[in-house]
Amino acid sequence: MREDLEWRGLDFVEYDVEADAAARDRLLALTGGQRSVPVLVENGRIVKVGWNGRVCTF
C-alpha cells in the first residue's frame, strides 16, 4: 500500500502499530478490534483494509 501511495504521489502518514501503543489503540478503535494491517484511513474513516487481498495480523 505504501508503494502505491508513493507512486501516485499522495501524501500520507504511516504508523507502526507494533511500536506505537497510541497508534495501535486508535487503529483498534477504528476497526472494532480487528488486528489486521495495512489499513488506509481518510478523514477518520476506513477506506481499505489489506492490500491485494492480503493482510498481516499483529
Short account of what is shown:
The chain is 29% helix and 22% strand.
Structure report:
- With about 60 residues, this protein is α+β, with helices and mostly antiparallel strands.
- It has helices at about 1-5, 20-30; strands at about 35, 40, 45-50, 55.
- The chain has one domain (about 1-55).
- The strands form two sheets. Strands 1-4 form a two-stranded antiparallel ribbon.
- A hairpin with a 2-residue loop joins β2 and β3.
Set down the secondary structure blueprint.
Layout: H1 2-7, H2 21-31, E1 36-37, E2 39-42, E3 45-49, E4 56-57
Antiparallel strand pairs: 1-4, 2-3
Structural domain count: 1
Count the E strands: 4
User: What is the arithmetic mean of pLDDT?
Assistant: 96
Give me the number of helical elements. 2
Q: What structural class do helix, strand and pairing data support?
A: alpha+beta
Sheet of most strands? 2 strands, antiparallel
Widest sheet, order of strands: 1-4
| Radius of gyration based on Cα positions | 11 Å
First-last Cα distance:
17 Å
- Detail the poorly predicted runs: none
- Provide the β-strand percentage band: 15-25%
- The helix content, as a percent range, equals 25-40%
Task: Assign an overall shape.
Answer: globular
Order of helices and strands: HHEEEE
